[in-house]
Amino acid sequence: MAPGQDLPIRMMLTELNSHFRADRGRPALAFALLRRVNNLSELVVVANNLLSLHDRVTSPYHFYEVWFEEPKSETTVSTGAFNTDPQGKGILIFRFNPLEIGGYPLAFFKQIYITAEPQDGDPAPATKVLG
């Protein structure tokens, strides 16, 4: 994302951690679309080849979470959580005020990434998976 960039914005999120691949033979990835819908902004994230976490009793991770980030200040805002089906596909749709998110203008954020999250009540991002 770039300051002043018009919507829609399309991004590909690439693998940062191969531990979360559903199919070990190919990388996980996601596509993100940031667009305007009526009077709202909408982020649509479609993930592919991510391990399903909700049925992994031995894993400390329980869900994936999508984040906006401004890396210099390390400011993050969560856009919500999702999980994947047995084929490794998952989707998140997040609608928000087009002028700001988490008290910041949308242009403030430079990145979107996905983390794997434990159910520990900690609101901070955990293990980065795609970015």
> What's the CATH architecture?
Sandwich
Shape call: globular
Give the quaternary arrangement of the chains.
single chain
CATH topology: Immunoglobulin-like
Q: Count of helices?
A: 0
Biggest sheet strand line-up = 1-2-3-6
**Sheet of most strands:** 4 strands, antiparallel
Strand content: 35-45%
The computed structural class is mainly beta
Number of domains: 1
Tell how many strands the DSSP assignment holds: 8
- Mean pLDDT over the residues: 91
Order of helices and strands: EEEEEEEE
Q: Span from first to last CA?
A: 12 Å
Question: What attributes does this structure have?
Answer:
single chain; 131 residues; mainly beta; Immunoglobulin-like; four-stranded antiparallel β-sheet; 44% strand
Characterization of this structure:
By secondary structure, the protein is mainly β. The chain has a single domain (9-130), classed as Immunoglobulin-like. It contains no helices and 8 strands. The chain has strands spanning 9-14, 29-37, 40-48, 63-70, 75-82, 90-96, 111-117, 127-130. A 4-stranded antiparallel beta sheet has the order 1-2-3-6, with no helix packed on it. The protein has a 4-stranded antiparallel beta sheet with strand order 5-4-7-8, with no helix packed on it. The two termini are 12 Å apart.
